[in-house]
Specification:
Shape of chain C: elongated
Chains: A mainly alpha, B mainly alpha, C alpha+beta
Number of strands of chain A: 4
Number of strands of chain C: 26
Number of helices of chain A: 25
Helix content of chain A: 55-70%
Strand content of chain A: under 5%
Distance between the termini of chain C: 52 Å
Number of helices of chain C: 27
Radius of gyration of chain A: 27 Å
Strand content of chain C: 15-25%
Strand order of the largest sheet of chain A: 1-4
Oligomer: heterotrimer
Helix content of chain C: 40-55%
Radius of gyration of chain C: 33 Å
Largest interface: A-B, 55 and 35 residues
CATH topology of one domain in chain A: Cytochrome C Oxidase, Chain A
Structural class of chain A: mainly alpha
Distance between the termini of chain A: 71 Å
Chain lengths: 715, 53, 734
């Protein structure tokens, strides 16, 4: 029996590596920019395309899909081939995958600053790009499965399991969360509304963290750590156990993003319970990785690559401990909506994803270029820059989050809010924002240093585009029947059939019973006084979405005393039944706006105030870091699509009358005129009714307006 | 809130899919040997044949 | 590509015989075969590399895959390459293979355990998810009132419970059915009743909308039962010493025909045929030594540690192992394999581990449960039929003796583990029970209470000065013969000198010139022309005998203590095949032997054991083949050994010699197991009583069932494990 010879495709790995490095720098740069905007609004440059609301999603998407995404592909393409002892299934698919993915990123980089967004976190990209993502993801899967099929190594190493779980789960998550009806080429409305949308979003959001940011990296860790340390994984058994328990538990932890919202209490409790349980498998992975270095710790001192891995794994451990802690209801009450969550995210992203990516880049590039690292010193420097960056990022953010969360809750001895003005709490944490930006800057410089170092390294060597390898093919065995096991087979058949049939029967019964109920329920009004958005309000809402206001403003008052005092009545699920998509938000850099249209609420401001505030936030709120939106004053609203919007909304279950879209434009103009008149007469502000600011004001004044304490009905 | 039903069902379906995958892989002997795979990863013999560029 | 033929050793040749081959390979077709070969020498990652590269070096080998965990290599080869070749190849590479048919049978058992693991995983998965759906009810949360979700969760729970009942729990249902059909009593019957009641009643509750059922208890119950089963198997897997007589006696030999060597099957040989036996090979047939010098180790047959020196013309016996050069043996009779095997092999009873004791109890248990169920149902029917039905099924649900089913495997399983950790390998749990009831311990002498390796040497004769002693030591250390080794060690403190000549004369001794003197060490009949009764190595210097070394086996350390401790529980006897020279020495060590008999043949030993058994339970401890039938005769038979690669027919347990001094502790622990089981029984019955009380009063809600059942299982397991561990620690076994 002779070995077969074949080649590993290193070219595709190199391509993904380059993309990783470049997009990493880009994404981090955007991060530093938005970090600066968060203490100095000047950095918005009064330009719509780079205002915080539009830039923040660009940062998250760039880091998650461009930086981490390409890193995943780089690592998977490198390790999969070598673990399976086979070249990638199809070079063509590899190329399509690579270029397709980069095009998607470019599309994101163009559409997001243009304000073409769905507003759903980490899923902001509009439907055409969503479709493209699905297609490219399928290409990736096809290539991966094909390679596994023609492998020459029978056993699927644990890393492969992680890659497979990632592929399947992300596919399901992406598809379900992207259910939407298009209204235009780059505009769509989510198929789900209000609390349902929130649930789907965070089922997606949390599992995206799990299956895009965690599982692929665990797979990569299980391959690259042993390679870098040149020792086997501490306990392979543990890694198998860890994999299975992780994927089974992770799926149920989603509700911890929705604590103290109008999600039913029992679902929240389940989420908390499972989030706590998640510590065990997560730490299993961390320990397994770290203990692989048992007996080789002295090497960590000299090898910067191993340093990255160790700190990366430690950050993973920290983040996966912190996460469950943040799921505890009492901790969550303080932390939700604050910078503490941001800190948590970045310990994971900068520490786990970032450092591991760097280590893998430093491992792969010299090898595929058949040379040594250009500057070992630079790698070390990078390590320190990155680690310091993380520290300067996370620690100020912990302070900031805790400070702000506590300040919101403070009461004076007379029972009044200690900090009735929200702005006070934001101002209090600006110094920490500065430190954080500095931390980000350190991290970014490390990345730039790395990019330079890798470039020099590549130049000093030649790419081994096709790396020769040899291995025995898998011998197809003809299994004969062992007499001992024969009786076993006979007995096995019957119950299995019975099992399968009963399963199908019950499943059909279930589907028949539940799907109609689900479909119908979305039409049921639970709060009689809650009405759909008027055409003008709808347009205003879309402007809110376009500008990314939900990145700083939440719309979900929690049932806490301080919140009800500060904002008004706490949010009920019935209020958001027409919200396609939901806009609960997940961060309060600015105050919650759920009651912005309720005159009884402290957050209510009249149209004049809103006009001034949008034109220049600092004119009404001294020291505010909110960007200015002068173009809302200058630009006419483009309302030609209102008929389409109404139609789509109706399709999604919002009870607009038949034919309403015919006179929607009329209604829109009427309402706009009212507002324009008000501004003229009461405030002396001259603004044409066509301007976008009018629509936005109309929307803001709708928020919470329908809630009347008498009318409130719980579900 | 019926969306929860859908989400739970989907998640459960996914979990069952994984259970099935687990079942099949145990049957086909993937987990018979839980020590050599860890060492095979380190099988870093330099290839003897020529490399193409 | 190597193509030089290997010199294939005799012991591998028999694998090529068709009936052996078929049992040894995992699969085969017309052209290829695949076989998993155990290679204990695998120890590092380079081994994997080396072995998996085999196909590159041998044309016929198609693939080689290493399983490091099991120290196994699975080889697929073309049928043109015989299995013996592959085996020899592996040995030459430094990985002597262990291939045996009994090993293959053990592996088949391992597959069964894999299936059990799958069932366990499925049960665990479903259990976890069903619990997830029942959690809101535990916490009394809002969803209880939300009909929609209550329904969904119920339906999902039903779906998840299907694989638990019909796949994971299937063995219990099947075995209960078979037992019932055969009219026998079995512990799985009440368990099956419990499972079916839980399932049936829950379905009723859910589909009629009356309640949420007890599916979490159901899944949990099966889950815990399966853990018990898994644990049991895991423990038994560790006990791996079964070997077969076939692996010991070769079935093929090199026959000399007209000066040529050919391979022949033993049963094809006839009287007068000549066979060639090489160094370290076992003599498969009785015959006369026609050519060569025999240094034959009959340890397994007679128990004699020292090899016998056989001259041409003398008889040799099957089972002896030649320790020197080639021999040619002429057959005295037609060899009969059956006769050989019947002397040594025995049917070892493969009792499945269902303790007869628990089966016995289950009969009464089931009866009691049914009676209680029926009576309470009747009583309740006066108030409400609905309630009566509920109570009836509650009783059946909660009265599952799962705790009982777990206590025996965990008690015995833990004890077996402690034993095996102390190098005492017991075949099955029944043996522990027997061990606790032993009245009389019978011991063999040589190899059982004496050490095989160390020998005690004394010198009788003219005093040796330094120069002479050194010279003698020098000569002695030139030979690897065990007697020479003993002498050389005895004289260890003397320096080795330069040697001018050396010669080893098989059958006689060794001689050499040191410092101008001719030193001879050897048998009495060579140096003195007279036979000696004792084992003695005579020394002559320049032709004059100056003395001799008396070599005798030494007793195991701590023997006195062991015998004293044992005598507190049991009577002691010694039955030996050796001569009575040690009688006084033994009496000094322990004066109160019930019987002290010598010069017994294996058959006579067996008869003696039988006599004692008239009114006492006997534990027979021996070593090697010579004690095998006595060991089998005993109520319990323990084979004592230096290593585990030997052959122990008829024994219920194997004790590695280094653990001999722990024998009293083992017996005490075995006795303790009775107590533990009793307490377990009481404990689990308490749960049953509590549960039945709830059930009879109509108070058995799902949450109570969900708490009671896992709690009872877990606590019984913990109790048993803790008790055994504490006791083991007290006995210094762990």
């Amino acid at each position: 029996m002779q070995k077969e010879t074949f080649n590993y495709d290193n070219k595709i790995v190199r391509n993904f590596a380059i993309a990783t490095a470049i997009w990493g720098v880009v994404g981090m740069l955007v991060g530093v920019i938005i970090a600066s905007q968060l203490f100095e609004p000047y950095f918005n440059f009064n330009t719509r395309y780079i205002s915080f609301g539009r830039l923040r999603p660009l940062h998250t998407n760039a880091i998650i899909f461009a930086f981490v995404g390409n890193a995943i592909f780089m690592g998977v393409y490198y390790s999969l081939q070598r673990l399976m002892k086979a070249r990638m299934f199809s070079d063509t698919l590899s190329k399509i995958h690579f270029w397709g993915w980069q095009l998607i990123i470019v599309a994101a980089a163009i559409t997001l600053p243009l304000g073409l967004t769905s507003s759903k976190e980490y899923a902001e990209l509009e439907w055409p790009i969503d479709i493209a993502i699905t297609l490219i993801w399928v290409v990736f899967g096809w290539n991966m499965f094909g390679t596994i099929y023609k492998r020459r190594e029978k056993h699927l190493y644990v890393a492969i399991w992680f890659y497979l779980a990632t592929f399947i789960t992300v596919a399901m998550l992406h598809i379900v969360n992207s259910f939407a009806l298009p209204v235009g080429l780059f505009k769509s409305y989510s198929a789900f509304a209000g609390v349902q949308d929130a649930l789907v979003q965070w089922w997606y959001g949390h599992n995206a963290v799990a299956f895009f940011l965690t599982t692929p990296f665990l797979g990569l860790m299980y391959y690259f750590m042993p390679k870098m340390a040149n020792r086997p994984v501490y306990s392979y058994k543990l890694s198998i156990l860890h994999f299975w328990s992780l994927i089974f538990l992770y799926i149920w932890a989603g509700p911890h993003h929705l604590l103290y919202t109008s999600l039913p209490g029992w679902a929240q409790t389940l989420g908390v319970a499972f989030s706590i349980m998640l510590i065990a498998p997560s730490w299993g992975g961390m320990l397994n990785g770290l203990l692989t270095l048992r007996g080789a710790w002295d090497r960590v001192r000299d090898d910067a690559m191993l340093k990255f891995m160790v700190v990366g794994l430690t950050c993973y451990g920290m983040a996966t401990f912190e996460g469950p802690m943040l799921s505890l209801k009492n901790v969550n009450a303080i932390a939700h909506f604050t910078d503490w969550i941001v800190a948590h995210v970045h310990v994971g992203a900068l520490g786990w994803n970032g450092l591991l990516t760097f280590a893998i880049l430093y491992y792969i590039i010299p090898r595929i270029y058949e040379t040594k690292m250009y500057s070992k010193k630079a790698v070390n420097t990078h390590f320190w820059l990155a680690t310091l960056g993380i520290l300067f990022y996370a620690i100020p953010m912990y302070f900031s989050g805790f400070t702000q969360g506590m300040m919101w809750q403070q009461f004076t001895v007379d029972g009044m809010l200690k900090y009735p003005n929200f702005l006070e709490t934001t101002l209090a944490v600006l110094p920490m924002h500065m430190l954080r930006a500095f931390g980000g800057l350190l991290y970014l410089s490390g990345a730039i240093l790395m990019a330079w170092n890798l470039f020099k390294t590549a130049k000093s060597g030649t790419l081994l585009a096709n790396e020769a390898a040899e291995a025995y093919p898998i011998v197809k065995e003809e299994k004969g029947e062992i007499q001992v096991a024969y009786w076993h087979r006979w007995i096995e058949k019957r119950p299995t059939q019975l099992l399968i049939f009963s399963f199908i029967a019950v499943a059909i019964g279930g589907v028949v019973e539940f799907v109609p109920a689900f479909m119908i329920e979305s039409n049921v009004k639970t709060i009689p006084s809650v009405t759909p958005y008027s055409p003008l309000e709808l347009e205003g809402r879309d402007i809110y979405i376009r500008e990314g206001c939900n990145n700083c403003h939440s719309q979900q008052v929690r049932p806490f005393r301080d919140e009800t005092v500060r904002y008004g009545e706490y949010s009920k699920s019935g209020e958001n039944v027409y919200d396609h998509p939901f806009l609960w938000g997940s961060k309060r850099t600015g105050p919650d706006l759920a009651r912005a249209g309720n005159t009884a609420s402290k957050v209510y401001k009249d149209a004049g105030w809103h006009y001034q505030h949008m034109k220049n936030p600092r004119s009404t709120s001294e020291g505010s870091i909110m960007p200015a939106y002068p173009w809302l004053i200058d630009d006419d609203g483009d309302y030609g699509d209102i008929t389409d919007k109404i139609t789509v909304m109706r399709k999604l279950g919002v009870p607009y009358e038949e034919g309403y879209e015919e006179y929607a434009m009329e209604e829109l103009n009427e309402q706009a005129e009212e507002i324009a008149n008000f501004l003229m007469k009461e405030k002396g502000i001259k603004v044409a009714k066509e301007k976008e600011i009018v629509a936005l004001i109309a929307y803001l004044h709708k928020l919470g307006r329908d809630i009347n304490t008498k009318d409130v009905a719980t579900k | 809130m019926k969306i929860i039903a859908m989400l739970i069902s989907l998640s459960l379906l996914l979990a069952l899919g994984f259970l099935y995958a687990f079942y099949k892989s145990v049957k086909s002997g993937q987990f018979d040997d839980l020590e050599s795979p860890a060492m095979r990863v380190l099988d870093a013999k330099k290839s003897k044949t020529n490399n193409q560029n | 590509m190597k193509s030089t033929p290997l010199d294939i050793s005799l012991k591998y040749k028999q694998f090529d015989l068709v009936e052996n081959f078929n049992q040894l390979v995992d699969y085969q077709n017309d052209t290829i075969y695949g076989v998993g070969i155990s290679l204990p020498a695998i120890h590092c990652s380079s081994c994997i590399e080396l072995l998996e590269d085999l196909p590159s070096f041998y044309e016929g080998i198609r693939s080689a895959k290493v399983n490091f965990e099991q120290r196994k290599c699975t080889v697929t080869a073309s049928k043109e390459l015989p299995l013996s070749f592959v085996a020899q190849l592996l040995e030459d590479l430094g990985y002597p293979p262990q291939i045996s048919i009994s090993q293959k049978l053990k592996e088949a058992e391992k597959t069964v355990n894999k299936n059990n693991l799958l069932k366990l995983a499925v049960a665990g998965f479903c259990f976890g998810n069903i619990m997830l759906f029942s959690m809101p009810h535990y916490f009394g949360l809002q969803v209880v009132n939300d009909a929609f979700f209550a329904r969904i969760f119920s339906v999902l729970s039903v779906m998840l419970s299907l694989p638990v009942v019909f796949y994971a729990g299937r063995d219990y249902l099947n075995s209960a059915y078979r037992a019932l059909a055969a009219g026998k009593s079995h512990l799985n019957i009440p368990i099956a009743i419990g499972i079916l009641s839980l399932f049936g009643w829950s379905l009723y509750e859910i589909f009629s909308g009356v309640g949420i059922g007890y599916l979490d208890s159901l899944a949990g119950l099966i889950f815990f039962l399966l853990i018990g089963k898994w644990f049991q198997h895991k423990v038994y897997d560790q006990v791996s010493y079964t070997r077969n007589v076939q692996e010991f006696i070769p079935l093929v030999v090199r026959q000399l025909v007209a000066g040529e060597t050919i391979w022949s099957r033993i049963d094809e040989l006839k009287k007068g045929d000549q066979v060639l036996i090489k160094n370290e090979e076992v003599i498969p047939v009785n015959g006369t030594l026609s050519r060569g010098y025999g240094v034959i180790d009959y340890a397994f047959i007679t128990g004699e540690a020292l090899p016998e020196q056989v001259k041409e013309g003398e008889q040799v016996y099957a089972g002896g192992c030649q320790k020197a050069g080639e021999l040619v043996v002429t057959l005295l009779e037609e060899p009969s394999i059956d006769k050989l095997w019947s002397t040594w092999s025995s049917q070892t009873s493969k009792k499945a581990f269902t303790d007869r004791w628990t089966d016995h109890i289950s009969k009464y248990f089931t009866l009691a449960v049914i009676v209680i169920a029926v009576v309470s149902a009747v009583v309740w029917s006066f108030s409400s039929i609905e309630k009566a039905l509920f109570v009836f099924s509650s009783v059946l649900i909660v009265a599952c003796p799962c705790a009982l089913a777990l206590s025996a495997p965990f008690t015995f399983g833990n004890i077996l583990r402690v034993f095996s950790r102390n190098n005492f390998f017991v075949k099955e749990a029944e043996a522990i029970a027997t061990l606790s009831r032993i009245d009389h311990v019978v011991l063999d002498k040589t190899g059982t209470i004496t050490e095989n390796t160390a020998m005690s040497v004394s010198y009788i004769g003219e005093e040796l000065d330094v120069a002479t002693a050194s010279a003698v030591k020098t000569i002695a250390s030139q030979s690897t013969h065990p007697l020479s080794n003993a002498v050389s060690e005895f004289l260890g403190k003397y320096q080795s000198l330069h040697i001018n000549s050396f010669e080893e004369i098989p059958g006689k001794g060794i001689q050499g010139e040191v410092a101008g003197r001719m030193i001879r060490l050897g048998a009495s009949h060579w140096l003195r022309d007279t036979e000696s009764k004792d084992t003695a190595v005579y020394v002559s210097v320049d032709g004059e005998v100056i003395g001799h070394f008396k070599i005798s086996a030494s007793y195991r350390s701590g023997l006195k203590e062991v015998l004293n401790r044992l005598s507190k529980r049991v009577r002691l006897s010694i039955l030996s095949g050796d001569n009575a020279g040690e009688r006084e020495a033994l009496k000094e060590i322990f004066p109160n032997f019930f019987q002290l008999k010598f010069n017994l043949t294996p058959q006579q030993k067996t008869v003696e054991v039988g006599k004692i058994q008239y009114d006492q339970k006997v534990l027979m401890i021996g070593d090697g083949l010579n004690d095998s039938s006595a060991i089998e005769q005993g109520d319990l038979g323990i084979a004592i050994t230096e290593n585990l690669n030997g052959f122990y027919p008829g024994s219920d347990a194997v004790l590695v010699s280094t653990s001999f001094d722990k024998l009293p502790a083992f017996m005490e622990l075995a006795g303790y197991s009775k107590k533990v089981l009793k307490w377990s029984l009481v404990f689990s019955l308490c749960y049953n009583v509590a549960g039945v009380t709830f059930a009879v009063l109509g108070l058995l809600t799902p949450i109570i069932a969900a708490i009671l059942m896992p709690l009872s299982s877990v606590s019984v397991v913990l109790l048993d494990t803790l008790l055994v561990r504490i006791k083991s620690r007290k006995l210094n076994l762990i």
